[in-house]
């Protein structure tokens, strides 16, 4: 298998692409919440029998609208450190791999826990659903990373303030400083 070259510039590119995805998804969610607030308020207040319910539902979605930019700003601060080259690249061995568990609940939709990779020196890394490895050769999901990883595989860990931000399997990537 031919390895892809991993450089600091590619890591920064992945960071930038992730932020743009996060930002545009946040904007879509905010617009959706605003539409739900408007619909809820006008629908229930026009009925005149449930104005308290309209205010209650609107306030929940208004709270979501406030929390989304806060979470985007927190993520932005972390990604900005990567973009400004304030990150470390270290090697670590995979100790264990925990696949996500999917739960079915009769009254709720299906929900699951994220895939988790446990490393010898730097602890665990949660793989939330999404696309990883924005590269020319490997476009892998969280499940793909877990399925190709074996115990004792070496990984390049991208650390910001000793917290794992990205992982790259050394079977697929070769670091070039």
**Helical proportion, percent range:** 40-55%
Instruction: Give the number of helices.
Output: 3
Q: Tell me the fraction of residues in β-strands, as a range.
A: 25-35%
Main sheet specs: 5 strands, antiparallel
- Helix and strand sequence: EHHEEEEEEEHEEE
Radius of gyration: 21 Å
Q: Measure the end-to-end span.
A: 21 Å
Low-confidence stretches: none
Strand order of the largest sheet: 6-5-2-9-10
Number of strands: 11
The gross shape turns out to be elongated
Q: If you average the pLDDT, what whole number results?
A: 79
Structure class: alpha+beta
Describe this structure in words.
This protein starts with a strand and ends with a strand. The protein has helices at 8-47, 51-83, 142-148; strands at residues 4-6, 88-98, 102-103, 111-112, 115-119, 123-127, 131-132, 140-141, 154-160, 163-169, 173-175. 45% of the residues lie in helices and 28% in strands. The chain has 3 helices and 11 strands. The longest helix is centred in the N-terminal third of the chain and has 40 residues, at 8-47. α1 (8-47) runs antiparallel to α2 (51-83). Strands 6-5-2-9-10 form a 5-stranded antiparallel sheet. It has a two-stranded parallel sheet with strand order 1-11.
List the SSEs and their pairings.
Blueprint: E1 4-6, H1 8-47, H2 51-83, E2 88-98, E3 102-103, E4 111-112, E5 115-119, E6 123-127, E7 131-132, E8 140-141, H3 142-148, E9 154-160, E10 163-169, E11 173-175
Parallel strand pairs: 1-11
Antiparallel strand pairs: 2-5, 2-9, 3-4, 5-6, 7-8, 9-10
Helix pairs in contact: 1-2
């Amino acid at each position: 298998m031919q390895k892809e070259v991993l450089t600091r510039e590619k890591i920064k590119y992945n960071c930038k692409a992730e932020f743009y995805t996060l930002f545009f998804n946040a904007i879509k969610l905010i617009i959706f919440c605003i539409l739900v607030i408007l619909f809820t308020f006008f629908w229930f207040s026009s009925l005149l029998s449930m104005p308290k319910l309209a205010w209650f539902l609107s306030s929940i979605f208004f709270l979501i609208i406030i929390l989304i930019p806060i979470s985007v700003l927190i993520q932005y601060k972390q990604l900005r450190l990567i973009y400004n080259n304030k990150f470390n690249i270290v090697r670590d061995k995979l100790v264990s791999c925990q696949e996500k568990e999917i739960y079915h609940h009769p009254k709720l939709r299906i929900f699951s826990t994220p895939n988790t990779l446990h490393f010898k020196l730097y602890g665990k890394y949660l793989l939330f659903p999404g696309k990883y490895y924005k590269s020319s050769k490997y476009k892998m999901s969280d499940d793909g990373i877990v399925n190709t990883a074996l115990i004792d595989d070496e990984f390049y860990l991208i650390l910001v303030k000793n917290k794992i931000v990205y992982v790259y399997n050394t079977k697929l990537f070769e670091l070039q400083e």
